[in-house]
Each structure stands twice: as C-alpha cells, then as structure tokens.
Amino acid sequence: MRRCGLVLAAVFSFALAQPAWALFGVTEVSNEVKALQQRVDAIDGRLVKIEAALQDNQQMLNLLKEVETLKSELAKLRGQAEVQVHQLDTLGKRQNDLYADLDQRVADLAKAARPAPGDEAQPAASGTAVPAAAAGNPTQLDPLVESRSYEAALAQFREAKYPAAIAGFNGFLKAYPDSTLASNAQYWVGYSYYAMKDYKTALAHQQKLLVVYSASNKVPDAMLNIATNQIELNDLAGARKTLEDLVAKHPGTQAATLAARRLSTLK
User: Fold this and answer.
1) Which pLDDT score is estimated for 122?
2) Mean pLDDT of 164-173
3) Alpha carbon distance 184, 181 (integer Å)
4) Nearby residues of 230 by Cβ (< 8 Å), 6 or more positions away
5) Closest by alpha carbon to 175, among 143, 136, 201, 206?
6) How confident is the model at residue 20 (pLDDT cuts 50, 70, 90)?
7) How many whole angstroms separate alpha carbon 120 and alpha carbon 99?
8) Which of 8, 91, 199, 222 is deepest in the core (most CB within 10 A)?
9) CA Rg, the chain, in Å?
10) Each residue of 80-96: pLDDT tens digit?
C-alpha cells in the first residue's frame, strides 16, 4: 500500500507540474485559432486590395470623364480658332485688295483730271462752261467716299462694335447697292449678328447673300458661316448638308478646307 501510495503521489506530482492546456487539448484549439486568424488576416489583406482597386477604378472613371469633357472643349475651341483665323485672313486679304483698288482709283482720277497736251494755254472763253473734270466735280470723289464708308463700317466690326458695324454696312448697302463691295458688306452684317449670338438673324442675312450675290466670291465664306449658325441652332443635319455643298461647289477655297475639317467632327 505504501508503495502504491508513493506511485500515485508521483503521478499527481507529474500531472500538477504540466500546463493546464496540455491536459485538456487546448493546443489543438489554439492552433485552429491561429489558423483562423491567419485566414482572417489574409481576407483582410484581399479586402484592402479590392477597396484600393475600386478606388483606382473610380479615379480612372473620373479621369475618363474629365478627358472627354476636355476633348469636347478642345474641339469647340478649335472650331472657334478656325473661324477667327479665317476671319483674320479674310480681313487681311480684303484690306490689301481694297488698298490696291483704292490706289488704282486715285491714279485713274488723277489721270482724268490732268488736262490734255496743248490745252494748258487755252483759257476758257467767256461764258463757256468749264469741263467738270477740270472744275474738280465732287461726283468724281464718289469711289473714295464709297471706300471710306465701307472701311468705316469695317473698323467698327474690328473693334467689336457690332451694332455700329451693322448700321454702317446697312447704310453702305443703301447708298451703294451696286458696289463691288456690296456682297462683302452683306457678309459682315450677317457675321456681326453671329458675333452677337443672334444666330437666326445671322443665318437669314447670310442666306440673303447667297440669293442676291450668288456670283460673289464671298459665297463660300457665307456658306461656312451659315453652317456655323446652324450648328449653334442645333440643326446638325442642315449644317452637314451646307458643309457638304460648300466642299462640292467651291473646292480649293479656304472656306471649303475649313468645311472639310468641320465635317470630320460632325461625323
């Protein structure tokens, strides 16, 4: 008995010396908890990556929207720049042509006013009317007055004083309906209304140019402005038709080149 008691005491002493979890299988549970924690950590890591990817995608979508907006604004600005470049080119060419024509007219007036050889020593007889040319008849200055009237209206346009420009060009058309500059004046009336964003009135005046001055070299420019007004009025089908007609009927003109570019953006 004494020996058995010693054995039992030794067993209990050994048992008491061991950790409690070794006696109740806690090791296995602890390992499972660790494994689960590792899986949770892995899932958390994946969620973080997914959230980051979603944020990146949202940022990408926002960037794409911004790019599309910028593209639209860029296309609009390019169209405006083309119109302005065309306007400057047209104004420069018109001014050079006008100055050359004015110089020629002044030379013609001077030649007409110069007395013929042998006439200098022949005074006019008493009671004889002096020729109009020698008397400097003011009607011979009409070409100069005409040019100055046109230039005055054009100067108003260049300074963006569009109502004054319209009044000036309309006055010019009333005074000189058969002038070689009449179609130009009609064009600038329409373009002035366009600059003031009165697109319907601008369209009507440019269409009038096509009817009244169908043989004018301003027809291509007027057609281009017609298409621009149609675009502003959301008549894209009409604008496309106008641009196609311009390219087909007036190839080689600067207006046709601009029309072809504009068509590419409408398709």
Assistant:
1) 47
2) 96
3) 5
4) 203, 236, 238, 239, 242
5) 143
6) very low
7) 32
8) 222
9) 45
10) 565 555 556 566 555 55
